[in-house]
Amino acid sequence: xxxxxxxxxxxTILPAFCQPIEMQFILWDPSxxxxxxxxxxxxxxxxxxxxxxxxxxxxxxxTLFYVRSCFPRDFVxxxx
Length: 80
Hints:
It comes from Trichinella pseudospiralis (Parasitic roundworm). Helices cover 8% and strands 30% of the residues. The chain contains 1 helix and 5 strands; from the N terminus they run E-E-E-E-E-H. It has a 5-stranded mixed beta sheet with strand order 3-2-1-5-4, with no helix packed on it. A hairpin with a 4-residue loop joins strand 2 and strand 3 (34-36). The model is unreliable at 1-25 and 39-80 (pLDDT under 50).
């Protein structure tokens, strides 16, 4: 997958008892090395999850980052 804009590709990994959440694009801020979560970010099932970390996996493109997680509290703190 290639990208010439500053975006992150969000992939959620949820437990079986949670409904899957569709993949969505989020902005990548190179100055802070963080993703900028949109205000419309879907937090379904976040109260049921026990995740305590999230990881960013850089693919071939320097501007596109894969975020693989199951909605830890870090997502809430990182949201605008």
